[in-house]
Amino acid sequence: MASVQLKNVSRIYGSAKAVDDLSLEIKSGEFVTLLGPSGCGKTTTLRMVAGLEKNTGGRINIGENVVSDADKGYFVPSERRRLGMVFQSYAIWPHMTVFENVAYPLRIRRLPSAGIRERVGRALCLVEMESYAERPSPALSGGQQQRVAIARSLVFEPEVLLLDEPLSNLDARLRIQMGDEFRQLQQRLKITTLYVTHDQSEAMALSDRVVVMQEGKILQAAAPEEIYHRPLNRKVAAFFGSPNLLPAKVKKCVSSDTRFMLSVEGDGWAGDCQAAVARPEGSAVTVIIRPENLRLGEPQEKFRRSEMGRKSGPIYFPRASTFHYSEDLRTVAQHGIPFGGRNSHGQYDQSFRSKVGGVGGRRLIGHATQSARLF
Ligand SMILES: Nc1ncnc2c1ncn2[C@@H]1O[C@H](COP(=O)(O)OP(=O)(O)OP(=O)(O)O)[C@@H](O)[C@H]1O
Ligand SMILES: [Mg+2]
After folding, report:
1. Which pLDDT does position 315 carry in this prediction?
2. CA dist., res. 76 & res. 70, Å (int)
3. Nearest atom in ligand 1 to 213's CA
4. pLDDT band at residue 327, thresholds of 50, 70 and 90?
5. pLDDT at 278
6. Ligand 1 in contact with 93 (CB < 6 A)?
7. Domain residue limits, the chain
8. How many angstroms is it from 168 CA to the middle of ligand 1?
9. Which end of the chain is more exposed for a tag (fewer CB within 10 A), N or C?
10. Is the CB of 231 under 6 A from ligand 1?
């Protein structure tokens, strides 16, 4: 499979920069997701890789081949890029059977019919739709239609798969199921995938790497865990879930292995956390505590060292009676949901959250895990 490289790629419409000097490499077999608010340039980026849109600046490579170079005025049209594409409206033709829908891209390229039969059969097997080949397309569920669209995108054995919000037309349950199936298929075929969504749970659950975009630029590109626990800045931090961002002052900074252990003090609370860079004593920082890293302790409970874990630092909050943050701090009702996992209702973990209210006499204990990022 091919890698994809975008080097200083821009797309300007009139005076507006839809994509602004964006550089990104998607490794062979990697699943990379572009994530960001509406209008941040995700679709435009995808369409430029697809060759459906010309970049006004920069260069795009697919594998060894340059497919677009704005400076040199060089542009390889979409049909010569060996790409599979699935879009939000997956455009299954209603007047055709499942077989004919998948065969269509091969028919317009006039492949011999024996070859078509074999390839369509293989693509339908991949999405477990082989027994539906003769079914008219309107007689399919949304999820099945989506599988047909995926089969059609795979029928060419593309080197790169581009997907623009392919699950957004499905209901919540199907979205999770199709997302899982899709990820399994992608891993089995090791197909290089660029995926677009504005759904953070989807991005976190499916991707090897998430690229957070805003206003045509990349804010951070990293593995989901990295983005979640070590956001580069406040914008990225706030984009995922509802973290607690607590202002604090550094009391002490000690270097340990590759990181720095900080003792910090906030308004009525104190604790230890880690930072990637040294922060001098007295400097102002912001500590992030994720909701799932908060729990209620018993009134006299001492913080258990065993709870710290290697990557954690404990944060002690005062008794709730004098507690300043009880209205603002968010926590989860239950503890121990694995990252990127599901709760017992099959929902992604971000939705599994409730506020702490009236906790008279009890202590709130927060874990500043690696999310104790300091800005
Ligand atoms: N053909 C066009 N002409 C002018 N402006 C455009 C055109 N296509 C996109 N834009 C603008 O470029 C910006 C990026 O659009 P794009 O479709 O890439 O966003 P997106 O991240 O995919 O958003 P969404 O999540 O809503 O799909 C937007 O401000 C949009 O209005
Ligand atoms: Mg879009």
Report:
1. 52
2. 11
3. 21
4. very low
5. 83
6. no
7. 4-235, 244-368
8. 17
9. C
10. no
Average pLDDT over residues 8-26: 97
**Residue that wins the pLDDT comparison between 103 and 273:** 103
| pLDDT above 50 for 230 | yes
Q: How far does residue 31's CA lie from ligand 1's centre (Å)?
A: 23
Between the CA of 89 and the centroid of ligand 2 the distance, in Å, is 12
Top CATH class of 4-235 equals alpha beta
Asked whether 43 lines ligand 1 (CB < 6 A), one says: yes
Range from 13-22, 218-227, 320-329, 357-366 carrying the lowest mean pLDDT: 320-329
The string of pLDDT tens digits covering residues 172-199 is: 777 787 788 888 888 888 999 999 998 8
Q: Which secondary-structure segment (H or E) carries 145?
A: helix 142-154
Whether residue 247 has pLDDT greater than 60: yes
Cα–ligand 2 centroid distance for 44 (angstroms) = 7
- Binned at pLDDT 50, 70 and 90, residue 345 comes out as very low
- Of 198, 235, 163, 194, residue with least CA distance to 37: 198
For the entire predicted model, the pTM comes to 0.79
Q: Is the CB of 244 under 6 A from ligand 1?
A: no
